[in-house]
Amino acid sequence: MIRHHDFRHNGLTLRSTVHIPEGATGTRWPTAVFVHGFTSNRIELPNFVAMSRLLQANGVASIRFDLSGHGESDGDFFGVTMSGEIAETRAILRSARTLDFVDPDRIGLVGMSMGGVVAGVVAAEEAGIGALCLWSPAAVAPFEIGSGYLKGRSLAAEVEVKGYFDADGHRMSPALIEGIAGLDVYGRSSGYSGPVHILHGDKDDIVPLEYVRRYLDHYGGNAELEIVEGADHAWGSVPHRTTLHQSTLRFLRRHLQ
Q: Are residues 34 and 228 in contact, defined by beta-carbon separation less than 8 angstroms?
């Protein structure tokens, strides 16, 4: 079963799609919550839809939601902040536990790119996350933006002229810039002691592998890194995307079922 569900947070509607396996009425399923990347949405380029369908066929429910200012959710991108995305994801998790198809004791998080950064922080700061899977986590972002440049352009110079930074057609606010630059991505993630599976391509030209490897230095031996030869940031080939999805399925089934 696939259906839509609206969550509410701070006066905004956060729209989602849920996938529920076939089973007896009243069954509570292990559930994965997906966090999409920067300027993306709940469909996501590495195909959250196909991943949700694969999980559904294997007895795992899922919730794919649009953060505010993204996709079909309320809000404008100019109002997006890192603290807001973390708070929204925590709110979704708390609400998800009350849904009639969700087993509140078997919830996992899957995050893509900046969504991986958010998921890592949330897993450490929101109790009860049974498994954490990070796809191409953008741990480089605080360091890149902290340098004052993004995609080779000066953040400060552009903000001074326009009042925002033009991020692929999205108005990136000074508050978002400051929030990303000041994020202690590894320190705030390290408190999670559950199982972590990180998938990253060795041809990712957005997030250098060295920044992903650093996660392993901050977790207490509970994390594993799977480096996929030839894969780019968006997992833009059928074999690479298949590897991503099958590895995620195995991980979530192992720790949530």
A: no
